[in-house]
Fold:
Amino acid sequence: MPDTAPPPDLTVRGVAVYKGWLAPAAQAAMVDDLRAAVAAAPLFQPETRFGRKMSVRMTSAGRYGWVSDRRGYRYDARHPSGVAWPPIPASVLAVWDAITGLDRRPDCCLINYYAEGARMGMHQDRDEADFQWPVLSISLGDDALFRIGNLERGGKTESLWLTSGDVLVMGGAARLVHHGIDRLRPGSSGLLTQGGRLNLTLRVVD
Ligand SMILES: O=C(O)CCC(=O)C(=O)O
Ligand SMILES: [Fe+2]
Structure:
């Protein structure tokens, strides 16, 4: 990232963490923007190639969305219903611009919704064409325990709690670290009327 990037509050294994980057009013405004996006492209519960349902529900905004089904996972220009993905809200792109300082913008915003009990297993984000671009993640709603591993599978890990308004960046040498969400702290935030947690990941796909 250019050296105009603001210094993070902490760095865990190269992952830059900006605690409380979004103030409560900005979080609420972003949730309103996301509600409109989700109305256009409803959340769905993806299935893995092996026919197992993921516990997270998801949708996307931008030119590409991330989908997974019996054919495997990939970026697709359309929602499973056949509609195009809605545009990435300006409020979300503004976070990318302010933190990364890049002149390239993401073309996918994956929107993950975790209800109580949902989790995400350890994985790398590696379906994008060029790993020089970072992945930026925004947390909204309930606290979540984020686990960071290594570039290779397995090995020791470190965990941190992400709270509403936190932003993190996986870039540079940390672009391909394994990561996942172990669990939520249900009811820890009142941001989402239905409870749970929204996570946005901004990606440059191609
Ligand atoms: O929910 C999170 O904080 C992480 C989500 C994630 O790793 C992903 O969508 O690839
Ligand atoms: Fe990921």
About this structure: The helical segments are 24-40, 90-100. The mean pLDDT is 96.
